[in-house]
Each structure stands twice: as structure tokens, then as C-alpha cells.
Task: inverse folding
DNA sequence: AATGAATGAGAGTTCATTCAT
DNA sequence: AATGAATGAACTCTCATTCAT
């Protein structure tokens, strides 16, 4: 990806982070090279030394975004004895963690998803990110289905997309914390086979 | 909402539609008063005659967007004999219809959802739209649950949010037609009680 | 002057007065045809029906201004038995009266004096006003000098200009009420012969 | 005032001077950032680089104006042996000099005096200038009165204001050169004690 | 007599980008 | 590696004026 510049300089990194922050708070509409430079404590001219055109900076932010999704992890969830299930639960936990500790992550992702429609360079970065994510989830689901842990009424592929769109949609809508948690739980249960959680009560009826 | 102005002039309407188109294609970043005016075949000055400031136009587009979601309907689905279930199926059909016939609708909605974070006027319009939508779905679900047609393992409220976020998320991710259809089917089945569709095959395994 | 339109319509008069008010408060910079029309309760288009171009309105305001200087009179001062002296005292009293009851008058005059530098039509109106004023004062002074009531160390012409520039200057500088009164008194005494007011104390030394 | 920025860049200075010229010729109404920039041989964008908003430029012009009044001096008048009297005569000579060599100075001052009514930043600059001027004149007058050179029938304070308003008024009215000279002479004599110029003729009667 | 609708020309301001240093 | 200075192009918004009705 950013194979050309193998070792991103400290300055570049800082610029990318500042740009990320500004996109998070003001969207692409509010992203000014001047503001980014100023936030990084350098001049605009210097910014353009590192990123000759604004779009390069934006692509760099997209890559930074991809990376953050990998790096920002919730504390490891307790194992339930099944690797794929554990992985899935960790992912949901991560989602909740992001909501609480780095809420910008999903917002910026949304910004990029929209922008990618008109920017081929971004499309590549984001498509790769999404594909990787999809394959990861699908892998877990297939494993779980083989092991008889997950429901088999839907294909792993469809189920993976379902999970993805659910998570992405949850951050578009501005749901409150409680609702979000309930949704994630419901999502988890929807994947598992009934017998695994027969101890569940009937209708929560929390409304 | 804009009920006060009962009869929006033709010019105003046209401007709003052109603005909608431009947002759909180029995002808010690409929304220029000049382009909108030009697309409507009038001068910028005239645009400002109708919408003194750009933001007014944007709010008008938001209202237009709200309205479109109501207006743009897929052909009525065949009834299965239960009003709430029919309503739900119609909604999912509409979603599919939107994907095919007015794909801009969801894109523009996403644009507005992001922008609403920084624009109070938009927040009101969109929050109202979402709340109305939520209540509508929840109503159907409650009815269906009472009638023993829908699953009762999750509250109608949570389930409604699940559906909403699923639909919204589906349009963020650029899923292909086939996948989208599969997701909507899976969504429908997830809501129904098991016995109602015991004739379903096991694992589609379409991957 | 405004000989063409012999009988200024009520509407026209109203527009002129509103324009005057706006110039008084916001200067020529702030004079917008729209604001004038709005203040008069009519549309811009109608304003342009009466005054095809903005400059016509401005000239009309200049004439209104001229007229106001004549109309706005302080209550008659007590006579001291000499017509010219009385007239002069009345003029000074008027100046004070204007300061208190129609402070806009001088401000607008200043606006017009500056604008007249670039507008020939205004030049004519204002030059006529000033000339008339000058002749009036000079007439009184000459009479007074002949009658031995006024000082004769300066020509009536010069003295008249002196009075005029003093009065005009006083309204440019933003003097407070007390200072203004003191200046006007000093001005009066400067014109009279010493013997007429030998009863005056020596040095006021009010500083 | 603008003492903080000790070394105003050449470009800034040039812009201020061009703005001054334009105000002199076309008033504030005619002051366009584009024209100023063009007159200075640079682009509008560059102008805004130095003066982010037009008002900053205007304040800078006000400061330039203040400074010019100090800088532009007539050749030193011949001394009459009394410092305060000499200073006063120098000031009157300066006024005449301004009329002839930089007639814009007073015009621009009038423009600013009017504008200051609506612009607090200008008010400060101009009020400071006027106050300084007033104190200066008053100081001379007090000295002269103490030394028995100047009339004492009016307080130094009032007399100073009288001189100021006279000078300001003279430039509002468009007096010709001869009249102006006569007024200044009359003003000088009005201040001096009678005995000092007993050699004066009676009535010039130049009308 | 009156106006809603429309507009050309132009205003101040912004911004990514360039370049000499 | 870094920047102050400079700019073209474009932005939103304003305003006197016109014209069909």
C-alpha cells in the first residue's frame, strides 16, 4: 500500500493524525491544508513538501484509518473455548470499545466511504480494508458453522455481510450506548445456535 | 415540517432537485450555488432570491429527502394476510426498489447524516425522519409479536433499531445486487417465527 | 431645483425621508434601495418607479436636507433690539437646537459635503445651499457693522466664512454639549463690539 | 499605536498608501480591495495576506493618516520670539501647507470622522489623534495666556476647540485659497492681544 | 401605480498550490 | 528540510436595475 514511503517520517505521521482529527470533527468540508499544518505546528508550505497535493494526504489518512482499526483493540474478552467464537466476540467488543474510546474512528470511516465514491485512490484503500474485514469474519463464521457452534440457516458469506452492515449502520445512526449494547448482544445471539444459550429468558421486553 | 409553505414554487422545487442531484454525485464538497443555479437554468442571483443563504437550500433538500423516502415506493408486495408483516415486507421491497431506481436516495442520506453532526437545523429534520421511521417499524413489530408472527427473543425496539442499522449499513457498504437481496431475505426470515418457514432448505452455501 | 416634479407625491416624500434616516445612521455606504423601500413599506421596484436611478433619490434627499435647515428652527430668541444681531443669535440658537433635536441634520450634511466632491448634481444643490447661507450671514454682518454693533476688524465676508466653518467644524468634531455651548457663546462675543458687553468678567478659566 | 509592529513591510505600507489615495479620490464607497491591490501592483489575494479583512486595512490607513498629520510640515515659520506663539503660527502654516500640498489629508480625515461613528476601532484611533491635537493647542494657549501674549477672554480649552473646529470646518467647506488665508489670519489675530497688532488697518473689506 | 421575479456585475474572502530563499 | 510571500481561481453573497404583469 504505502510501500513507496517505507518509513513514514514523524512529521508525516503527525500531519496525518492532525488531518484525521480535523476530518473527525469537521468532515472533509472542513479539512484545510492550513489548519492541518497549523495543528502540526508547521507551515502550509512544509505540509506540501511532504504531501505535494492534498489528495496524497487524504490517502495517507485513509491508510492510517485502516491501521487504526487493527490497532485499537478492546481488552481481550474471556475465552469461551472456541477460537472462532472468541474472535467474533472480540470483534464485537472492539466495536463497543471504539464507540467509547475512539468514536471518531467510525465517523471518519463514514466520511471516507462517501468520498471513495468519487476518488479512485481511496476506493482501493477502503475496498481492501473492507475485503480483508469480510474475509476475516467469513473465516470465523465458516469455522464456527463447521464446528456446529453457529447457525447454518444463512451462508457464512451473507452472515458476514450482515454483521458488517449492521456494525456500519449502527454508527451512522446515532444510537445511545444502551441501545448499541443491546444490538450487539442480539447480533451475537442471532449467530449462535439455539442450544448454546437455551438458558436465555423469553422476551426481554426492555422497551 | 415545512408545512407552513404549502405551495413551494416550481423554481424552488427545481433548485432543490438539482441540489439533490449534485449532492448525490459530488457530495456536499461539490455543492456550489453556481452549479445548482446553472443546472436549474437560472442565475446564481436568482438562486439567492429563493434561498438567501446556501444553508436554507440545504435544509430544503433535507426536507425533500425526507419526503422522497415516503413517496418513492416499490409496487405493492403481495399480501401474506398479516398487515404488519405486509408492511415490513413492503419496506424491505422499497429498500430494494430504492437501490435499483433511486440509488442516490441512500447516498444523499448518508451525506446528510454526516453533515447533521455539525448543523443543528439538519439535525432536527433528520432526527424527526429517523424517529418517525423507527416508530413505524417498531409499531409493526409489536403488532407482529403480539400476533405471534414475529420472533419474541428481542424487544420490538431493539429489533427495529437492528433493521434500521442493517438497512443503513447496507447502503454504506457498496454491496452488489445479489448480496443485497440475500441480506434482505435473511433479515426478513430472522424476524419471522421458525415454524412459519420450516420449509426452508438448510445452508444455501452460495459462496 | 426640483422644478420638474412640482408637487412631490406623498410616497416620494416618504422615500426621501427614509433615505435621509438611513444615511444619518449608516452613511452612504449603508444606503440600499431595498432598505429605503422596505422602511417606506413598499417594494424596491416601486422605489425605482419614483426614482429610476439611485442618484435621483440622493439628489432628492439633498434637497430635502436643504429644506430642513430652513424649516427646523429653534423657538424665537428674545430680541435685543437689533434685527441683524437678532438674526445672528437666532442662527446660533438654531445650531444648538439642531444639535439637540435633529442631530442627524449635520451628520447627513457632512455625508453630502463629501459625496458632492464626486457628484456634480449634488455639488449644485449644496453649493446653492452654502451660498445662500453665506449671503444671509454676510448680509446680517454688514448691517451690523454699519450700525456699529459688530466688530469691524474683519470683513463681513471673511467673518461669515469664519462663522460657517466654525459651525460646520463643530459638528465634525464630536464635542459635548457644554463645550458646544461655550463655543457658540465665544463666537457671538467675538462678533460684537467690546463696549456692548463690557460687563463681562475677565478670564472664565473654566479649564 | 501600531508601535508593536515596528517595521511595517514595504508591501503593507504601499497598500496603505494606495488605499489612502483611493479613499481621497473616491471615498469609502469607492474603496475596493481589488482596486487597492491593483494600484499596488499585486493580487487581491496578496492584499488579504497582509490584511485578512478589509477593516484591518482601513484601521492601518487611519494610523497612516494620524502619522501624516505629524509628518507633513510646512517649512519652519520665522520666530516671533515666543515659543507658544511660534508653535501656533507653525500649526496654521501647516494647515495652509496641507491645503496646497496634500489636500487629500483633510478630505480623508473627514471620511474617517464620518466612518468612525460606526466603527469602534476607528473611533479609538481618531479620538486619540484629536485628543492629542487638542492638548497640544491648549498647552500653547495656556502658555501664551500666562505670558500675556494671548487674549484671556476665553479659556484655553474653549479657544483650542474653537481653533480646531474652525480648521476642520474650513476643509469641509470648499473655500478658495484667498478666503482660506484670510480666515487663518483672522484666526491668528483673534487669539493675540490687541496691543500686539495695533498697527493693523481697519476693515480689509475685500469682498 | 405597483410588484414579484430575475439578473449581470461585482463585492470580500478563501484556499491549494508555487517558488525563491 | 523548511518557510514567508504570493497568486489564480473559485467561492458565497449583494445590489441596483429591469421587466412582464
Result:
Amino acid at each position: 500500500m504505502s510501500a513507496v514511503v517505507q518509513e513514514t517520517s514523524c512529521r508525516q505521521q503527525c500531519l496525518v493524525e492532525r488531518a484525521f482529527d480535523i476530518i473527525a470533527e469537521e468532515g472533509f468540508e472542513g479539512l484545510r491544508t492550513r489548519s492541518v499544518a497549523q495543528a502540526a505546528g508547521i507551515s502550509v508550505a512544509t505540509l506540501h513538501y511532504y504531501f505535494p497535493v492534498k489528495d496524497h494526504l487524504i490517502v495517507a489518512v485513509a491508510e492510517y484509518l485502516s491501521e487504526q482499526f487493527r490497532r485499537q483493540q478492546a481488552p481481550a474478552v474471556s475465552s469461551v473455548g472456541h477460537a472462532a467464537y472468541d474472535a467474533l466476540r472480540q470483534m464485537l467488543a472492539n466495536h463497543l470499545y471504539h464507540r467509547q474510546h475512539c468514536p471518531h474512528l467510525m465517523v471518519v470511516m463514514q466520511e471516507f466511504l462517501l468520498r471513495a465514491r468519487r476518488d479512485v485512490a481511496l476506493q482501493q484503500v477502503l475496498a481492501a480494508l473492507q475485503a480483508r474485514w469480510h474475509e476475516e469474519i467469513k473465516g470465523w463464521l465458516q469455522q464456527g458453522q463447521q464446528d456446529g457452534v453457529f447457525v447454518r440457516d444463512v451462508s457464512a458469506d451473507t452472515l458476514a455481510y450482515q454483521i458488517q452492515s449492521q456494525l456500519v449502520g449502527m454508527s451512522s445512526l446515532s444510537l445511545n450506548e444502551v441501545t448499541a449494547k443491546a444490538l450487539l448482544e442480539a447480533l451475537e445471539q442471532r449467530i449462535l445456535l439455539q442450544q448454546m444459550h437455551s438458558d436465555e429468558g423469553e422476551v426481554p421486553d426492555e422497551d
User: Anything to note?
Assistant: Residues 32-34, 44-45, 48, 52-54 of chain B lie near DNA strand F (CB under 10 Å from a C1').
